[in-house]
Specification:
The structure is a homodimer. Chain A is an alpha+beta fold. In chain A, 48% of the residues lie in helices and 23% in strands. The first copy, chain A, binds a DNA duplex through helix 8.
DNA sequence: AAATGATTTTGACCTAAATCAAAGTGTGTC
DNA sequence: GACACACTTTGATTTAGGTCAAAATCATTT
């Protein structure tokens, strides 16, 4: 997927991943808890979001089928998370614990490379997001997702999509009727 | 600094870094060029920024004395950069080429760890920036920098500081007189 | 199918910050 | 020391998107 693993490495890796089945609208990580797991989403949908001072949700990242991720800052630092993790659909996923993740990172060069790729992609994604937030209008951000990632518009509720685009639901509703 | 290097590793690493002396207001990387170098700033000041559709500058990151960095997305992908690199003061720096950087990354486990740390920190920094952009007012962002990183307010011109805070110069001027 | 609750839409109004423009204030150079 | 040019401040005006409130639509349970 991201790195070339040897046969014996794959064995070791897959031993670390535990399958889980989680119903829709369940919190995988609460605000204030330390993120202890990294996820591979087999089917379903999980998002990371946080709640601002006005009580509004801000969605940072959405994982659909075959995506990977977690509340990365807390997972890295092992400090309490600002972000929550929540399923948006019934979800089948694989979870690897923090300790196993970083044990693999110490023992396996190919895992280090895998982790580097994850970090590089996560960085680029965030960078692009900042670029869009600071230079595009609400409509342009919507059009961009429509063009680059239309599956999000199909799969997410307007409420969640709006929080992903960093606009209010009312604004999204008006946007769509243009 | 970020990782523990052995004596013989340090030798190898320092051989890769070339010192450069760059006068104030020089462009180290133009928009559209591929970023070929990673920098350690010995003394001085370098920023990364890009120019939006309205011709306004947006400053992503500022490197002061003893900071490291580059136009990271282009450096990673080796695709043309959206960002520019520019000195804001007379600057003494050390530069390592892309090829040497990633040769060290292949040859040296401790360099892999070093690079991981850089990526983790860059990610966290961008994540925090998004959080602030989407939840804080212009005034709150200014106050945050004043509290967390006051040296920026001392060293940067209002024009550059405003573009770092993602506000217009006029707004910053009004903010400061409150 | 009625009832409850969550989404989504529509409308009227408000506000933070941008825009445009002009006047000050520095600061480097010949 | 005066000229040119960059930077900063101040003022008047505009605007994208937020806020608040109410109506309309949809989904779920009994």
């Amino acid at each position: 997927m991201f790195a070339d693993f040897e046969e014996h490495e794959l064995k070791k890796i897959s031993d670390c991943f535990k399958p889980k089945s989680v119903k829709k609208n369940n919190i995988l990580l609460h605000e204030g808890s330390v993120c202890k797991e990294f996820y591979f989403i087999y089917t379903g949908c999980v998002r990371t979001f946080f709640i601002d001072k006005n009580g509004h949700e801000k969605t940072r990242y959405v994982m659909l089928d075959n995506h990977i991720g977690t509340a990365l800052t807390s997972f890295i630092t092992q400090k309490p998370s600002i972000e929550c993790l929540e399923t948006l659909d019934d979800t089948e996923l694989l979870a690897i614990s923090h300790s196993n993740f970083f044990r693999l990172n110490e023992e396996m060069v190919s895992w280090k490379i895998f982790y580097q790729r994850i970090l590089e992609m996560a960085y680029s994604f965030q960078n692009k997001k900042i670029e869009h937030l600071t230079t595009l209008t609400a409509k342009q951000r919507y059009d961009n997702v429509l063009k680059e990632n239309p599956v999000l518009i199909q799969r997410l509720s307007n409420r969640v999509l709006a929080s992903y685009l960093d606009i209010r639901e009312e604004t999204l509703s008006r946007l769509k009727s243009k």
